[in-house]
């Protein structure tokens, strides 16, 4: 090892006598007192950086918390409102059906019910036999109305 | 790694003794690291910035130091990387100025010594950054190739070749200027 070092030094000596005849120092000196205050300068810098970093970290943590909270709250609200939306939809459907029923015009109904169906329904209930085909005279009608407790004044007028 | 160094590392990793240990670390290594950085970057202002950043990194990453290398080679590695990074950043700037004139100041007596030191300083500036780093660590810091290998992550063979090339270039510069 020593032999190797010596041969290397000899080689360098031959290669550059200017450099190796005498070691040249180029240690440029810093300003006076520089090394005395270096530790304090570095420590101050570390403290300042730590302060900046912790402020940054706090902001990130806050941001993350708010964001997480917002997302969680949003999901909770959506889950809570699912039944409401579902029931609301059913209700709206029913209401819309009702609206269609009340506002539907006769012409529109005709699209759904055939005229012959109406006649057959009429016949099935035997309205024609009881109400139309019964041949009643005036006396019988008045008797019926008296039985059914109709207005007497009206009955007098009829008489 | 000698026991004093181990003890220092242990104290640096311990939160209770960290501040005092760091103070001791800075006081022990500030001068050799400063001169190494200054020869790399060329002037005091930049050397000061790089040195402070070096120690700040030491403070931040001492917990990650695995103690597979010596503490001072680890410190040199951080300092060297910081200096090389600084030089790269300077070159990337449009008005990058590594002032060769402010690089060297005489430290030995006599006009001849002064002259050769200034010339050597100027010669260093002609070297590529990594070659200058190797020359500095070998010639000025007098580290062994194995230690420089730990610092630079380059093989000993490649370091020797790099160092001889640097010496040759400097010799030519000194003869011609």
UniProtKB/TrEMBL annotation, chain A:
Keyword Transmembrane part of the UniProt annotation: yes
Transmembrane segments: 64-85
Top-level lineage group: Bacteria
Keywords per UniProt: Membrane, Transmembrane, Transmembrane helix
Protein name: Uncharacterized protein
The species this protein was found in: Cryomorpha ignava
UniProtKB/TrEMBL annotation, chain B:
Any GO MF annotation of the entry: sigma factor activity
Keywords tagged on the record: DNA-binding, Sigma factor, Transcription, Transcription regulation
Residue span(s) of domain RNA polymerase sigma factor 70 region 4 type: 118-170
CDD domains: Sigma70_r4
Gene Ontology biological-process entries: DNA-templated transcription initiation
Domain of life: Bacteria
NCBIfam families: sigma70-ECF
Family per similarity comment: Belongs to the sigma-70 factor family. ECF subfamily.
Protein name from the UniProt record: RNA polymerase sigma factor
């Amino acid at each position: 090892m020593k032999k190797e070092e010596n041969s290397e030094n000899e080689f360098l000596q031959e290669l550059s006598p200017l450099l190796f005849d005498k070691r040249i120092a180029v240690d440029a000196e810093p300003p006076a007192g520089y090394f005395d205050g270096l530790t304090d300068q570095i420590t101050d810098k570390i403290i300042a950086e730590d302060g900046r970093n912790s402020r940054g970290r706090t902001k990130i943590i806050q941001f993350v918390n708010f964001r997480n909270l917002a997302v969680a709250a949003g999901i909770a609200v959506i889950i809570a409102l699912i039944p409401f939306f579902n029931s609301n939809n059913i209700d709206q459907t029913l209401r819309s059906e009702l609206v269609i029923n009340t506002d539907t015009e006769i012409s529109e109904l005709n699209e759904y019910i055939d005229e012959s169906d109406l006649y057959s329904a009429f016949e099935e209930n035997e309205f024609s036999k009881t109400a139309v085909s019964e041949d009643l005279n005036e006396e019988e009608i008045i008797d019926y109305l008296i039985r059914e407790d109709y207005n007497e004044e009206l009955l007098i007028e009829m008489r | 790694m000698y026991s004093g160094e181990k003890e220092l590392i242990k104290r640096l990793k311990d939160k209770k003794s960290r501040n005092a240990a760091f103070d001791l670390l800075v006081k022990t290594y500030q001068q050799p690291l400063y001169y190494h950085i200054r020869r790399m970057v060329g002037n005091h202002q930049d050397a000061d910035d790089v040195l402070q950043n070096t120690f700040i990194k030491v403070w931040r990453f001492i917990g990650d130091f695995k103690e597979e290398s010596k503490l001072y080679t680890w410190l040199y590695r951080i300092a060297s990387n910081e200096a090389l990074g600084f030089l790269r950043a300077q070159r990337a700037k449009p008005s990058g100025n590594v002032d060769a004139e402010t690089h060297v100041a005489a430290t030995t007596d006599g006009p001849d010594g002064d002259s050769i030191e200034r010339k050597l300083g100027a010669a260093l500036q002609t070297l590529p950054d990594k070659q200058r780093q190797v020359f500095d660590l070998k010639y000025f810091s007098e580290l062994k190739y194995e230690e420089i290998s730990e610092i630079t992550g380059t093989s000993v063979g490649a370091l020797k070749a790099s160092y001889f090339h640097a010496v040759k270039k400097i010799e030519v510069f000194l003869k011609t200027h």
